[in-house]
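Customer ticket, subject: "Can you confirm the structure for Peptidase S1 domain-containing protein?"

Message body: Hello, I'm evaluating your service for our small team and ran a test protein. I'd like someone to confirm that this is what the system normally returns, since I don't have a reference to compare against.
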Amino acid sequence: MFATATVIAALVCLATAFPPEERTRIVNGATAAPGQFPYQAILKIQLPQGRALCGGSLLNNQWVLTAGHCTQGATSFEVTLGAVDLDDTTGDGRIVLTATEYYRHEKYNPLFASNDVAVIKLPEPVQFNDRVQPVTLPSGSDSYADRKVIVSGWGLQQNGGSVAQKLQYAPLTVITNLKCMTTYSPLVIKKTTICAQGGEKQSPCNGDSGGPLVLEGGFVQVGVVSFGHASGCERGLPGAFARVTSFVDWIRQRTGM
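Agent reply: Thanks for trying us out. I re-ran your input and got the following:
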């Protein structure tokens, strides 16, 4: 019981309740330009108690990758592609679809945030354009330690912060899992976890869950935003992500890619 309580106190999954007054953005991020992150998806998730906000990434013309905890209790997903502004629908050529079919990893464990991945099937294939493009899945078993990466999303800029309508992004650096264990319990930092930290206290926060962590300078996705520290997003502590290399086979099996 002691170990379990310690784990729960040390992490918080990075989804956020939705309505709009609770939507903000990545801590210490910059505003994305149209088409800069063409794989980024907005997920407005319908739940019995209301709606929640998560991110996702386009895998191909009919599948979106997100966090497993973003699908808990979900009845449907409003999936928006090609957007930078969260709500302003004028003139940006966004694609909005409502999806109901999804697969969450069979070994997802919400207590320890393990195997925190899911895929959502769009009701119809989408057409790629300069603002809608898929990510690339990684190959091999690289740890990516010390590699520069980019996280993007519409999550909180600070705890209890104000609304930001524009997609935010921040540069991070992958750290070793051993180093990450100095912040989080080894019970939650597993081989299937990848951690990254910002040099200027950049961090994913509530609302960024399910969003992509990609290698700098390309569309290769190495992580899915999973959880951060329960003490808050503004301390510059590492963010924890599902390690995509651990789930490539599962993704391909579920999506037929």
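A couple of notes from the result: DSSP finds three helices and 16 strands in the chain. The chain has a mean pLDDT of 84. Feel free to reply with more questions.
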